Amino acid sequence: MTDSVAHPAIPRVIYVMGIDGSGKSTVSEHLAAKLRERGYKVKILWLRFNHVFSKPLLGLCRLLGLTRYETREGIRVGYHDFYRSRVISWLFVLLQYLDAVRVRYFRVLPAILGDRKVLILDRYVYDILIDVMVDTRMADLHRGWVGRAFRNLLPKDTLTLLVDRDLNRVLAVRPEGRVDSNFEARYAFYRALRADDRVSSIANDGRLDDLLRSVEQRTGLET
Predict the structure, then answer these.
(1) Per the domain annotation, does 137 fall within a domain?
(2) By Cβ atoms counted within 10 A, which residue in 16, 36, 107, 187 is the most buried?
C-alpha cells in the first residue's frame, strides 16, 4: 500500500512490525506518547519470543545439533537449522502457533478491555511467521493456511503497520546483520509484505519528521 492512505479513526490495536533496525521502536514510542497526550491508556507489548509450548522442542534441538552459533568479526550469531528435519520443522510451526494463541488470549485481549485503551504490538504474528520461515526454509508458509491461521489471531480491526527501510540504512544501525547469514532472507520476507493489502507500509528512508507524520496519518492522529 502507498504512504498516502489515512486511517479514519484511532484503532484499539496497532501492530508495528519490521526488521531490526527499521525504526519500529521509534514508531511505537511516538504513537504511545501522542495517544497518551489525547487521554488514551496505552500499553506496548513486545511479542516476538514467547516460548512456552515451543521451549521443550528448542531444548531438544540443541541436543540434536539443530541449533548452533557462529562467531564472525567478534559477533556471535545463533542459527536454528530446523530445515534439516521436516518433522522438527512442522512441530516448530505448530508449537509457535500455540504460543501465539496463548499470547492472544492471555496478553493481547485482556489488554484492550475497557474504555479509551489502545494496545501497541511491537512484533507479533507476521514476525513470528518470518522467523519460522527462516528457520525452516518453508518460504511460502505465509501464503497458505498456516499464514491465515496466524493472521486470524490478530484482534478484529487491528491496524498493521510495516516500517520499511532500505537495506543499507538498516545495516548502518544494525551492523551485526552483515555477519548473519539469514539476515538478507529475513529482510526479503519483510519487503515482500509491502504487497499484502492487509498491511500498511510506511517508508523510513527520509527524515524522522516525515516518518512520524506518515504514522500519525495512518493512525488517525494527525489533526
Answers:
(1) yes
(2) 16
d(CA 77, CA 96): 21
Contact 161, 112 (CB under 8 A): no
Q: What confidence tens digit (pLDDT) does each residue in 99-133 have?
A: 999 999 999 999 999 888 999 999 999 999 999 99
Give the pLDDT confidence of 140-167 residue by residue, as tens digits: 999 999 999 999 999 999 999 999 999 9
Within a domain: residue 79?
Answer: yes
Q: What span, in angstroms and rounded, lies between the C-alpha atoms of 89 and 122? A: 25
3-state secondary structure of 86: helix
CA-based radius of gyration for the chain? 18
88 to each of 61, 104, 182, how far by Cα in Å? Answer: 8, 24, 19
Interatomic CA distance for residues 18 and 189, integer angstroms? 10
Assess contact for 200 and 159: CB atoms under 8 A: yes
User: Is residue 148 domain-resident?
Assistant: yes
Residue 165: predicted pLDDT: 97
User: pTM for the complete prediction?
Assistant: 0.91
Q: Give the separation between CA 114 and CA 72, rounded to whole angstroms.
A: 49
Total domain count for the chain? 1
Any idea what the CATH number is for the domain that residue 143 is in? 3.40.50.300
Helix (H) or strand (E) holding 192: helix 183-192
Cell of 45: 507489548
The rounded distance, in Å, linking the Cα atoms of 119 and 132 is 25
Q: Are the C-beta atoms of 80 and 70 separated by less than 8 Å?
A: no
